[in-house]
Amino acid sequence: MYLFIHRKDLRSHDLRAFDYLRKRDEAGIHLLIIDPSLTRGERLNSHSGRNFLEQTAALIQSYAEAGKELHVLHGDPEAIVDALLAAHPIDEVVVHADYSPYSRRRDERLQQLIRARERRWMTLLDSSLADLVEFHAFARREEPYKVFTPFYRMWLSFIRQCYSPMGSTSIADLATVRDIGKSIATGFGLPEPVAERIGGTMQAGGADKSADLLESFVRERLSAYPEQRDAYGDEQTSGISRYLNTGALSARQAYEMTDGLPGSEAWVRQLAWRDFYLYQAMYHEQYFRYEHDIDLSSLSGRHFEAWASAATGIPIIDAAMTQLRRTGEMPNRLRMVTAMFLTKNLLCPFTLGEQHFRLHLSDYDNTLNRGGWLWSSSLGYDAAPYFRIMNPVLQSQRHDADGGYIRRWLPHLAHLSDKNIHLPQGNAIVDLKASRARAIEVYKTILK
Ligand SMILES: Cc1cc2nc3c(=O)[nH]c(=O)nc-3n(C[C@H](O)[C@H](O)[C@H](O)COP(=O)(O)OP(=O)(O)OC[C@H]3O[C@@H](n4cnc5c(N)ncnc54)[C@H](O)[C@@H]3O)c2cc1C
Q1: Taking the domains of the chain in order of start, what are their residue ranges?
Q2: What does the alpha-carbon distance between residue 279 and residue 437 come to, in Å, rounded to a whole number?
């Protein structure tokens, strides 16, 4: 018998592990662990926490529709796996690889446990579009890539020559074990707020919406994506990140639905950025500890609260931070603009902004969020040059010419003319020109 543990792969078809498990041709336990780190403190009610549970509900539903059993338990992964190994003749534990620091630590502990119990541990790559281990061998480099453009060139060649398409196995093709024992099911039962959230989503018909979203993007917006992707209005981009990051949608499905269509080149390039950050998380240990290797003591959190609470007096910044807090969404360009503003004009360490996005983005992903923050703050390997500081007023005039985005999120400014609506208000906490000049001096010293 095998034990398969779902993690950031909340779907029931096109999983590398399912192709592998089908070959075993026997029944296994399918498990999703709700880790207490998700249910503690603010995380459960955060936009990304809610997103995760919504997609958990959709996964439970798709197992049920196929007549299969998914066990959803709450607790320490090590304790749950240990209990299952003791109670069932499991010979192999199968998971998809995850390289964020927390996942690495968790998986090291799990592996130790599984070795001690003399069972096998199998990890398979699933979340990136390219198989990044095969890609690394294909690229034949001693040093992993640090810069996007050469990575992207090689990545395109790899995808053209070695792309491995969507898997054909779905949950309907596998046999799942129904009964895991009452003591385990109740001992690791879901806490009430979690069970209620999942149940509520299911009652509201919480089926997986990712495929519909992708289809409407392909039909209605993909061809205009290269020109429209930076506009601030709703629905210029695909909106699939929240599904990609929990694995409700695979990068392969996203790629195969768009490949070769008008607009797809620019869009697939964004999927390559995603792979680039996943690759860095796999191959560069410093990726998640960059702040320990540089001296950020010249920066401070003095203005952080004003930024986070949308009280900077710079309309486009306050509008974007308001949208984020209310909805968990923020367009990519505004993530760059607000991040640069925080780290450069307000001279605040990037880690504070990174934490804030962690609690507020619906599509929060540790690896991609870190990549975006390192890039915007000119730190990390392939980042915006330190003297490139986006001017929020110009970014507002260029991508939201009639001020519609600002009016939507800051109705108290709606009366201003299309010209004035972009300008700093009387209560602006910094002068854009002076703070830009100061930031260039400070970052020159940090990066020297
Ligand atoms: C400071 C900052 C923080 C960010 N934090 C996150 C995060 O926590 N989670 C997250 O998914 N993305 C993050 N991004 C990247 C990007 O903003 C989002 O992926 C994008 O806005 C999602 O919208 P979409 O799905 O409509 O994207 P589309 O434009 O439709 O792109 C398709 C897919 O490509 C990938 N992608 C697009 N842009 C980027 C990018 N700049 N970097 C890496 N991958 C990209 C995403 O998987 C996205 O879903 C961050 C960017 C910045 C600058």
Answers
A1: 1-126, 127-166+209-283, 287-446
A2: 34
Instruction: Determine whether the shortest distance from the Cβ of 336 to ligand 1 is under 6 A.
Output: yes
Give CATH for domain 287-446. Answer: 1.10.579.10
What whole-number distance in Å separates Cα of residue 395 and Cα of residue 381?
25
Query: What is the pTM for the complete model shown?
Result: 0.97
C-alpha pair distances (Å), 210 with each of 10, 58, 59, 243, 296: 11, 10, 12, 6, 40
Neighbouring CB atoms inside 10 A of 38's CB total 18
Give dist(CA 360, CA 46) in Å, integer: 6
User: How does pLDDT run across 388-441, given as a tens digit for each residue?
Assistant: 999 999 999 999 999 999 999 999 999 999 999 999 999 999 999 999 999 999
- pLDDT, tens digit, 9 for 90 and up, residues 151-197: 999 999 999 999 999 999 999 999 999 999 999 999 999 999 999 98
Question: What residues have CB less than 8 Å from 267, skipping those under 6 apart?
Answer: 222, 225, 238, 258
Atom of ligand 1 nearest to the CA of 245: 11
**Cβ–ligand 1 contact at 103 (below 6 Å):** no
- Hey, whose CA ends up nearest to atom 5 of ligand 1? 369
Q: Which two tokens stand for residue 390?
A: 């986006």
Domain 1-126: CATH superfamily is HUPs (3.40.50.620)
The CATH number assigned to the domain with range 127-166+209-283 reads 1.25.40.80
